[in-house]
Design a protein that fits this description.
Layout lengths: L2 H17 L5 H17 L1 H13 L8 H13 L3 E6 L3 E7 L2 E11 L18 E4 L2 E4 L6 H16 L6 E9 L17 H7 L2 H4 L4 E11 L3 E3 L2 E15 L3 E2 L9 H19 L7 E10 L5 E2 L2 E10 L2 H21 L3 E10 L2 E3 L1 H14 L4 E3 L3 E4 L2 H7 L2 E9 L23 H17 L5
Parallel strand pairs: 3-6, 3-7, 7-18, 8-16, 9-17
Antiparallel strand pairs: 1-2, 2-6, 4-5, 8-18, 9-13, 9-14, 9-15, 10-12, 11-13
Helix pairs in contact: 2-5, 2-12, 3-5, 5-12, 8-9, 10-12
Bound molecules: zinc ion (2 copies).
């Protein structure tokens, strides 16, 4: 670069900088610098928390040890703490010295029924009870990192209490992956939905809620989108009843297995021929199918379960209606009967558009410019319920080590899911910066 151009650029830059009214930014610059310094100062502690939680993972609604760790930490920081919310959830309230708005930061604490391979010095050997059965347990979705990062953000923000204009609500949520005590269709509620039913927003109503999830991506890079971001996730159960008989004489039976095969194909045409895919992508998956005991016996029943995912409420309702009708009518045409049950589990997480736009420069600063637009995510998130109750923003952060290709990294829920811990300090900075800027912002989102 030649010197002349460089100086012209510099002068222009200075003029531009001076001529733009810098609402709320400069007043927060000092706090952002403090966040950066404090997050770095506790990085070793943050990683130690993450490893401790990783080594002792707990399934949804059984996060007793994790909740205790969180509770003791929040109490040691002088926060108001409430425990036992939605069974094992914890909420901490940090009141800043100055009056202002309220912002909520959310982390989920639960692990998954996945067996962790050997390798890490802090690998899990934990077992847990999942719907009454003993299973191996692993933090295969990174909720260990979410909990540790929010504990660190709480420490950083508690340290600047005197400068905080407003209140920060820290939500440590159980059972995001579902309850290990109650199955879908049991009529029970858990996780974010139950925390809301138990009144956490009635007691302290935040003006905005932020959540961060780790997933494969360049380490420390944040990606997110405005509007729909994660899918709605609904539970589908189909029981096909035929008439049992001899496998050699199907004409004397009503075959629920052949009928189920037609239903599975028919459900795919609900997505490909009926759903308006310009409004929303959609998925109907049959994940289990159980029927029969012997090769020469046509069974009486076949049971299938599956999941339905969409990003639009209208498309979701139509797919529910058409899936039900398709299964029932195909069964009827075979002389069988299909009992279809569809239970809504998680809504689409919709990022508030104003909040998404407002957050961009904050995220740029917190990540040193490593922010990009994220893809639609096929997974579901019960953060959706928080974001329905108050404007919400759910962002993702990459955790794939820099020498690896994120496209080839093991996805969330895989036993090979791996976290580059150097990203965690960036996640902590990001959450704390969102809170500080939201409370201190003159340009209110
Ligand atoms: Zn997950
Ligand atoms: Zn998750």
């Amino acid at each position: 670069m030649n010197f002349l151009r460089h100086s012209v650029g510099l002068v222009l830059g200075v003029v531009l900088f001076l001529s733009i009214p810098d609402e709320g930014k400069t007043e927060n610059a000092a706090l952002e610098a403090k966040i950066r310094e404090q997050a770095a100062a506790i990085e070793a502690k943050l990683i130690a928390w993450r490893r401790d939680i990783h080594q002792h993972p707990e399934l949804g609604d059984q996060e007793n040890r994790t909740a205790r760790l969180v509770t003791e930490h929040l109490r040691s920081l002088g926060l108001e703490v409430r425990t036992g919310i939605a069974r094992t959830g914890v909420v901490g309230i940090l009141k800043g010295a100055k009056p202002g708005r309220t912002v909520a930061l959310r982390a989920d604490m639960d692990a998954l029924p996945v067996k962790e391979p050997e390798g890490l010095s802090f690998a899990s050997h934990a077992k847990g009870q999942h719907w009454g059965k003993e299973v191996d347990v692993m933090h295969a979705c990174g909720h260990d990192t979410h909990t540790a990062m929010l504990m660190a953000a709480a420490e950083v923000l508690a340290g600047m209490k005197g400068d905080l204009p407003g209140t920060v609500q820290f939500i440590f949520q159980p059972a995001e992956e579902g309850s290990s005590l109650f199955a879908p269709g049991s009529g029970k509620t858990w996780g974010a939905k139950l925390m809301l039913q138990e009144g956490i927003f009635a007691q302290t109503k935040p003006d905005a809620v932020f959540g961060l999830h780790v997933m494969p991506g360049h380490s420390g890079e944040v990606f997110y989108r405005s509007g729909a971001t994660t899918a709605s996730g609904d539970f589908l159960d189909i029981m096909v009843t035929g008439k049992q008989g001899h496998g050699g004489m199907p004409w004397n039976t009503i075959d629920p297995i052949a009928t189920s095969a037609l239903i599975i194909s028919g459900l795919q045409t609900v997505v490909s021929r009926k759903a308006n895919l310009t409004l929303s992508p959609a998925v109907v998956t049959i994940g289990t199918i159980h029927g029969g005991e012997a090769g020469n016996v046509i069974p009486e029943t076949v049971q299938m379960t599956g999941t339905i995912r969409t990003y639009d409420q209208q498309v979701r309702e139509l797919i529910h209606r058409d899936s039900r009708m398709t299964a029932e009518k195909i069964a009827e045409s075979a002389g069988a009967k299909a009992d279809v049950s569809i239970v809504k589990i998680y809504d689409t997480t919709v990022n508030n558009e104003r909040l998404a736009e407002w957050a961009r420069p904050v995220l740029q600063r917190a990540t040193d410019g490593r922010v990009s637009r994220g893809p639609l995510v096929g997974a579901s998130e019960d953060f959706s319920f928080f974001a329905e109750a108050t404007p919400g923003l759910f962002i993702f952060m990459g955790i794939t080590p820099r020498d690896q290709d994120p496209a080839k990294a093991a996805p969330n829920h895989s036993p090979g899911f791996f976290v580059d811990e150097s990203a965690l300090v960036i996640g902590t900075r990001t959450m704390a910066s969102l809170a500080v800027n939201f409370l201190g912002s003159e340009s209110k989102p």
